[in-house]
Design brief:
It is a single chain. The chain is an alpha/beta fold and 241 residues long. The protein has one domain: Rossmann fold (3-Layer(aba) Sandwich), CATH 3.40.50. Helices cover 33% and strands 13% of the residues. The chain has a six-stranded mixed sheet, with helices on one face. Helix 2 runs parallel beside helix 3.
């Protein structure tokens, strides 16, 4: 009974949190959010070899200072890097370091018996997701800036989850044309680029950019959005979804 009451209370708090986020969203938000899933993982604690190389490739070719295929225009720089879980932290730390920035970590640390379907863990990630969204849309240090976020895929977008526990919902993307309702479990290969006009809570632009790495990282997985097959490189490295 206590467990049921706790879940009801948590769902109510999730609803209240979403209302609060929407209330502050028109006051302050970044000009652009670059959102990506964490790289391929070996277990609950660390990335696999392919994931580690993806983290290095992201820094060298897309997200790091002086990246060869930079997502930042000339004169632009990220104001912050945000992450959740150890996988997300490991994914964007190489890029953040090139800018001399720490990763703002909304920590969800795995327990001894951690597993993907654990309800307690899922609720913890959901709460951290709400906290991050509220910070993004309210804190003055992010207003009008570019912010990079690496997150857990189920809490980027998943139509099966409770309402207002994914970034798709919390950042106002649910009503934007072309935004997928679910991030596929076997896809690590895209950026979501989200633009906001000043004082507008609904994104003014959305684009999906595929990660297509050049040498020496051209052997990394680069699947299309609906492609359900992992690369042979990832399979040989025993990476897990």
């Amino acid at each position: 009974m206590a467990d049921v009451e706790g879940r009801v209370a948590w769902r109510f708090s999730a609803f209240v949190a979403s209302v609060c986020i929407l209330a502050v969203a028109a006051q302050a938000q970044p000009s652009r959010i670059i959102l990506l899933r964490h790289a391929e993982k070996a277990n609950a604690y660390k990335l696999c070899g392919v994931g580690g190389r993806r983290a290095d490739a992201l820094a060298a070719q897309y997200l790091g200072k002086g990246a060869t295929k930079s997502l930042f225009a000339a004169g632009q720089a990220p104001a912050a890097f945000l992450g959740v879980t150890l996988h997300a932290l490991e994914t964007i730390t190489p890029a953040a370091q090139t800018w001399g920035l720490p990763v703002i970590d909304y920590s969800v640390v795995p327990g001894e018996n951690d597993n993907e379907g654990d309800d307690a863990k899922e609720e913890q990630v959901a709460r951290r997701t709400q906290e991050a969204a509220q910070d993004l849309l309210s804190k003055p240090e992010f207003k009008g800036k570019i912010v990079v976020i690496s997150w857990e895929h189920k809490h980027i977008a998943n139509k099966k989850l409770e309402q207002d526990t994914t970034l798709r919902q919390l950042l106002g993307l649910a009503g934007v044309k072309g935004v997928p309702d679910t991030w596929p479990g076997d896809n690590y290969d895209y950026f979501w680029i989200i633009d906001y006009a000043p004082s507008k809570s609904t994104p003014s632009g959305f684009a999906m950019v595929k990660q297509a790495f050049a040498k020496p990282y051209d052997d990394l997985p680069s699947n299309d959005w609906t492609d359900k097959e992992q690369s042979k490189t990832a399979e040989k490295d025993n990476c897990k979804e």
